[in-house]
Amino acid sequence: MIELHRVSKVFSVGPVKVPALSDVSLRIAKGEFVVLTGASGAGKTTLLRLLYRDDVPSEGEVQVLGEDVASLRRSEVAALRRSIGVVFQDAKLLPARTVYENVAFVLRVLGTPKREITPRVFDALRTVGISARAQAYPAQLSQGEAQRASLARAIVRQPSLLLADEPTGNLDDAMEAEIIDVIKDIRAGGTTVILATHQSRLVRALRRRTITLDGGYLLKDEG
Ligand SMILES: Nc1ncnc2c1ncn2[C@@H]1O[C@H](COP(=O)(O)OP(=O)(O)OP(=O)(O)O)[C@@H](O)[C@H]1O
Ligand SMILES: [Mg+2]
Question: Which listed site, 39, 73, 116, 133, has its alpha carbon 20 to 30 Å from 202?
Fold first, then answer.
């Protein structure tokens, strides 16, 4: 599913070189639930960005779903991103659209036939437990509900890979537990999940394979 071979990423900020990832190699199999952790600045977000081809490595190779991401053409990048759902700390919903519209929008952009859109949107909303809020606007949602909507938008294309970057960073403990349960359900449906968090309490609670980055280096891969 995912293979990184001696991957490094260096950002140039003016004349300064900032190493974000250094010589990282790892493999993640289809269907795994992997936690990516490390202190702030360790390189978690950078690693996720390489997986959905938001950026390319400076050195080494990143393979996702059998493709070497650096060598993809524009149309192939779009195809790769269709198989990957991404959620962030901030739900990033379109404020002028309802929950339903936020999720349906993704399918419209893909040219999904009209009659398929409503059932698929409601499927996704049910999976995350927010179908009763379909007609609400983002400003009317709690942060937990907003994050559920953001998860629904990520999974409505039925991606084979879900990348979650600090998805519970803005939530209190009870809402965090609910969102984690939703992510576990998504994983149970066959989706590979990589969840990035700097919170060691959450890492301990998840008890999954944990990849720890430290200053861009892979420090530990265990569990
Ligand atoms: N676009 C960029 N330009 C310059 N430097 C960057 C860029 N993105 C990340 N960095 C640097 O790369 C390093 C790794 O950053 P990254 O955002 O991947 O860390 P992180 O583990 O996700 O941290 P956090 O827990 O705060 O989200 C940091 O030193 C950061 O400042
Ligand atoms: Mg980050």
Answer: 133
Q: Token pair for residue 59?
A: 């050195």
* Ligand 1: residue whose CA is nearest its atom 31: 41
Residue 134 vs residues 86, 92, 96, 170: alpha-carbon distances, Å:
20, 16, 14, 22
Residue 125 CA, ligand 2 centroid: distance in Å:
27
Task: Give tens-digit pLDDT for 119-128.
Answer: 999 999 999 9
CB-based neighbours (< 5 A) of ligand 2, an ion: 44-45
Sign of the CA dihedral with 179 first, then 176, 205, and 65 last: positive
Run of H or E including 144:
helix 143-155
> How far is the C-alpha of 14 from the C-alpha of 65, rounded, in Å?
34
Residues of the chain with CATH 3.40.50.300: 1-83+160-223
Look at residue 108 and give its three-state secondary structure.
Answer: helix
25 CA distance to ligand 1 middle (Å)? 19
Pocket test for ligand 1, best of 12, 16, 18, 86 (most atoms within 8 A of CB): 18
pLDDT in tens, 165-198: 999 998 999 899 999 999 999 999 999 999 999 9
Q: For the domain bounded by 1-83+160-223, which CATH number is listed?
A: 3.40.50.300
